[in-house]
Write a structure and sequence with these properties.
heterodimer; B: mainly beta; seven-stranded mixed β-sheet
């Protein structure tokens, strides 16, 4: 099935650094969601975006709904060790209820 | 409040066996979704219920996969005659209403030997 393209695939950063990742699609979405998944657990919702151009924050996390509606971005400021995990973007198109997920960005934070 | 729960958390089946995976959504959530997550991949949609009605089953990979939600609450995903390629994590998610944010359970890891 279709999966959205996320980049980078993985990243190693030092504690305290800022992180940026993005998600792109060949088709338009009207909702973008960002999830974090820890090993052996289900995805946990971080941020939801509903409008093109929207910028939303949740603590140290900031996400943006791209103007073209084909992309989204997630920034994490001042990373800490518990930020380690896999980050997935997910999009919802039209009137569909199902989510289409990205390929994931694996984040590792070193002290 | 309680989140989405799934059972069992781990299931090992021999090829050819039937399995049943259970999902208890968040109380009051109308919409329920099943996703399949292969190792190293993002979740992929299988099927969607609104109350007891299965409105979208376009993601079910074969007729060996069957899902039900008879009373609009608990859902069961059944896989008949399991094959090795069915090995994956099966995730359940629920949302209050259609189009709302989806909240996921911990998943059931199925291993077919």
């Amino acid at each position: 099935g279709q999966q959205l393209n996320q980049s980078p695939q993985s990243m190693f950063i030092q504690e305290g650094e800022d992180v940026s990742m993005n998600c792109t699609s060949s088709s338009i979405f009207n909702t973008w969601l960002w999830y974090k998944q820890d090993p052996g657990e289900g995805p946990v919702l971080l941020i939801a975006l509903y409008k093109a151009g929207e910028l939303t924050s949740n603590g140290r996390l900031t996400a943006q709904f791209g103007i073209t509606r084909k992309d989204s971005f997630l920034n994490i400021s001042a990373s800490i060790p518990s930020d380690v995990g896999i980050y997935f973007c997910a999009g919802r198109a039209g009137t569909a209820s199902k989510l289409t997920f990205g390929t994931g960005t694996r984040l590792q934070v070193t002290l | 409040g309680a989140g989405v729960s799934q059972s069992p958390r781990y299931k090992v089946a021999k090829r050819g066996q039937d399995v049943a995976l259970r999902c208890d959504p968040i109380s009051g959530h109308v919409s329920l979704f099943w996703y399949q997550q292969a190792l190293g991949q993002g979740p992929e949609f299988l099927t969607y219920f609104q109350n007891e009605a299965q409105l979208d089953k376009s993601g079910l990979p074969s007729d060996r996969f069957f899902a039900e939600r008879p009373e609009g609450s608990v859902s069961t995903l059944k896989i008949q005659r399991t094959q090795q390629e069915d090995s994956a994590v099966y995730l359940c998610a629920s949302s209050l209403v259609r189009g709302d944010e989806q909240y996921f359970g911990p998943g059931t890891r199925l291993t077919v030997t």
